[in-house]
Amino acid sequence: MSRILNLLNLAPSLLLALSLTLASNAVFADAASAQLAMEDSQNPLMLINTSQGEVYLELFPGEAPLNTANFIGLAEGEVDIIEPESGISFTRRYFNGMRFHRVVPGFVIQGGSPAYNPFGAPAELLADEINADYLGLDTLAVLNADGSFNEMLNISSKQDFETEILKPLYLKMRIDTPADLLARQNEVLTQLQQLTVKTAYENQGYRYSPANSSRKVSRGVIAMANSGPDSNGPEFFISLEDADWLTGKHTVIGKVVEGMDVADTIGATAIDDSEFSRLSTMIYSIRRVN
């Protein structure tokens, strides 16, 4: 009986010691499990430390070397930042103290916008690093066999079709007037029937390179936000879902290997990017771990 009482008396201290041990291990467990989850342990492992928790990213320099290096350089304070009013350049850890300024629940969390960095932004915008052929965009037809649009294009209206497909095609074919269109309508129809997703995007101004492999914009991917072709700066997003309609238009630089639950938590509250919100998640820092 006395042995049982002694064990019961020891139980609280044992539980406390065990909990402290587990808590201590938890500090390192995320980084350790993140490294184990990496495709290649030689790739950069980045930690985004936020007010909601930690997110670990594996970057892919072999797929997007310039944009990956720029992201790391911005995080580590190695890229010149231009102060907008004075034009003075200096270096600082660009992302520290910024926020996820745009959140669409279930879709995307976005951060790094120069509009929300009072210290300025890098002067240089980088080209896209996307291999459309590797992604299979050269084999995907814009029109399905039944005449509907390929779902990857995310065309939901006549206006979308005119803006994203027809107008760029007319420009390429040098069709400037209704008379030109009437005279060449059969040629336009043939072009549409033969049009691939890759060519449609090229008509919009995107340029592709076969130099490296690429991957789709899927759940957990981190990619560069942009305002069109070859306009990659410091702004990035993490996709909360498979988003095929972004594939071929955004340079993928990495993926979440640990902390996707934190990304989902950040993504649970809608944040309008047109104005500052105190509900937005703060980015304390982004740094390289390995």
Automatic annotation (TrEMBL):
Full protein name: Peptidyl-prolyl cis-trans isomerase
Domain PPIase cyclophilin-type: 53-288
Function text: PPIases accelerate the folding of proteins. It catalyzes the cis-trans isomerization of proline imidic peptide bonds in oligopeptides.
Keywords: Isomerase, Rotamase, Signal
UniProt record similarity statement: Belongs to the cyclophilin-type PPIase family.
Pfam family, one: Pro_isomerase
Catalytic activity: [protein]-peptidylproline (omega=180) = [protein]-peptidylproline (omega=0)
EC number: 5.2.1.8
Signal peptide: 1-29
Isomerase recorded as keyword: yes
A GO term for molecular function: peptidyl-prolyl cis-trans isomerase activity
InterPro entries on file: Cyclophilin-like_dom_sf, Cyclophilin-type_PPIase_dom, Cyclophilin_A-like
Database matches in Gene3D superfamilies: Cyclophilin-like
Enzyme class: isomerase
